[in-house]
Design goal:
CATH architecture of one domain in chain A: Orthogonal Bundle
Structural class of chain A: mainly alpha
Helix content of chain A: over 70%
CATH architecture of one domain in chain B: Orthogonal Bundle
Strand content of chain A: under 5%
Largest interface: A-B, 117 and 124 residues
CATH topology of one domain in chain B: MetI-like fold
Distance between the termini of chain B: 15 Å
Number of helices of chain B: 14
Structural class of chain B: mainly alpha
Oligomer: heterodimer
Number of strands of chain B: 2
Shape of chain B: globular
Number of helices of chain A: 13
Largest sheet of chain A: none
Distance between the termini of chain A: 35 Å
Radius of gyration of chain B: 26 Å
Shape of chain A: globular
CATH topology of one domain in chain A: MetI-like fold
Chain lengths: ~270, ~325
Amino acid sequence: MITSKRENLVGRILLILLMLWTLMPFVSLFVTALHKSGSYPAGVEWPADPQWGNFALAFQSAQMGALVWSSLQIVLGVVPVSLVIATMAGYAIGHLRVPGHRLLLLLFVFGLTLPFEGIITPLYYQIRDFGLLNTRWAIILPLIGLFMPFSVYWMRAHFVNMPAELSEAAQVDGANRWQVFWRVHVPLARPALSSLGILLFLWTWNQFLLTVVLVNDPLKRTAAGALGAFQGQWGTDIPLLCAGALLIMTPTLLVFFIFQRQFVAALLQGSMKG
Amino acid sequence: MNQPPARSHPSADRPSPHFGSRAVSARRGGVHRTSLRRGRWLGYLFILPALAFYLLFVIRPILLTFQYSMYDWNGVTKATWVGFNNYLKVFADPTLYGPVLNAFELIIFFSFIPIVLGLVTAATVRRIAESRLAGLARTIVFIPQVIPLVAAGIIWSWLLASNGLVNQLLSAIGLGGITKAWLGDFGTALPAVGMIGAWVQLGLCTLLLLAGMSKIDASLYEAARLDGAGPLREFFSITLPSLRQEIVVCVTVTVIAALSSFDIIYISTQGGPGNATLVPGLQIFYLAFSENRVGLASALAVTLMVLVLAVVLPIQLLTKEEKA
């Protein structure tokens, strides 16, 4: 391949600039978090006397332990159920092709572009009538429904490429329909399932609108919702707010760095398909 | 949505064979006698849970939004039927159509800037895409996609504050004269909020486009080089045309993010100063839950849903036609 050194150098510089552009905000956030609580530091300025205690203070004020536990409960309520029922539906639409599967798919696809704000008002009254306001169910149940368009679409895209011979062979070997699905197809769908799981985890953890409208108690919210509440409470104390924001982001960032390969792949595929 | 139409497998539409006869070891022998019709019925059973959640928590609220939009209702007392009056208000009242215009302006920042910058970056970086530096960058530029938008809002509210990093940098390069509280100024608040969106979307767009470029046949570039084409020619005659699908994806994802933005603005400006950064999502929230004007909120909600579809569907159909 004909390449010039100069072009590669420009490429490297551009990459470094891009990373700086992404990371500088975090540097500013971190440095600011070390200033005295209640002070007004400059954008990036190393403090004379770093206040590491701010993180402990923010940890207590935000009740990080309870908050992470709450988000975790919501994730556990949303993700496994969504994966199972979306896989079943994707299988029936993509592989079994029940009569009317095209229409059913269209019905789900219709919800793909839906802005959540579009339905938040009736959702509020519906959840109120169910008596679920200010509980974690108020986030869990609607989110499962709201994730169905993408999840079913995603799983169908996997199952539609599975050869029918696969099921026929298993059936000849004496497996019933449920066994064909559970023992043959679900294991084969593992890659598609794990990507979907990552995406749903992320979207649940970061969900904000539903928590703001449906749940008042920050300790029953998702991490993003709790962060919003934390800002409302500590918005004027910039160092403490920065410390809190960093803390609340840490679990997601940790999970991201551990599974970075899978995350990047899932997000790229996710947007290509969505 | 961008998937090629499903290739129907040659045997997929054949009725499944009657397979009861060979089953010997099954515990639930009855199931193996499954007739064709019974199998179909079972298929629907597979769809039922997903469909139930979807109908109850998505389709029903969509229909209810339509219904509410026809009423004047404060959420408590009896609602009165007003027909399409709420929609007339949406199109006549600047505090209602203003947010829609703001959302369209945000598209410049959420879509146009990240895609153009992403194209330039990806095209420049393409050759060193396999290097270790690029591998590191791949992880780093994804961070804004992973953190909650709320966090992005908090971070940038601080960066754009009067003594924040942005002004500090401007002063450092001798532009101290133009420093201001970017989010608090009527003239700059909306672009400033847009910059937050650009920061969030740039990494995703760059990586999507880079992934697309890696699929382009390298011999095309070599041929172009032999013909004496420079980097610019190369970009416009090879790279850009081959990226049609990736660009469509970037446009779709970012336009939806712009039109239905909520988190970033709720955190950074609450729609202010005045209504300078008010967007439909936020206005729906205020109307429905602070001002108790449920009917009007719903009319704006329907407008938003229709608008998103009206913008996204043509973009999608464009690619479908290309393939057919």
